[in-house]
């Protein structure tokens, strides 16, 4: 079963900076510097999901280690901010790698590091207002989706239907190139 989760991703200046680094455009992961950081199994899985050697990435902190271990290929993330679902992504590969994460986002010393990383094999920009999500069964009006949240099966299915209503039909994802 496809798992659906909601992740705030645009609410702070730091999050917007990270968005611009790894969501606005695909990032090379198979260059010498990043390849050396990756576990060989993770590199193999990334290459399988993204044959062009580039991908969009997002992540979560170590506080979410347990839940992030359940994220797999094909799961769907709603990236939120400004009271909107700003993008919908499909996970290519999820893994835990603090050094690789640091290479992607280069956080300032003392800033929170997203050690749980996931690539997106599809990424669709969106402008779905929270009000449309709140109107679905099981959601609460006024919920601003603070923090990473995994949806139960019923709410996940409802959100996926909403996404399909708001976004153009899916096409096979292109091979990402920098």
In short:
The chain is of the alpha+beta class and 178 residues long.
Give the N-terminus to C-terminus distance in angstroms: 32 Å
CATH class: Alpha Beta
Ranges with pLDDT <50 over ≥5 residues? Answer: 171-175
Radius of gyration: 16 Å
Helix content class: 25-40%
Which geometry do the CA atoms define? globular
What CATH calls the topology is: ph1033 like fold
Q: Which structural class fits the helix and strand makeup?
A: alpha+beta
Which architecture name does CATH use? Roll
Strand content: 25-35%
> What does the average pLDDT come to?
91
Biggest β-sheet: strands ordered side by side in the sheet: 2-3-6-5-4-1-7
Oligomer: single chain
N-to-C SSE string, H for helix and E for strand: EHEHHEHEEHEHEH
Number of strands: 7
Number of helices: 7
- Main beta sheet, described? 7 strands, mixed
Could you please describe the fold and organization of this structure?
This protein has 178 residues and is an alpha+beta fold. It has one domain: ph1033 like fold (Roll). It contains 7 helices and 7 strands, in the order E-H-E-H-H-E-H-E-E-H-E-H-E-H. Strands 2-3-6-5-4-1-7 form a 7-stranded mixed sheet, sandwiched between helices.
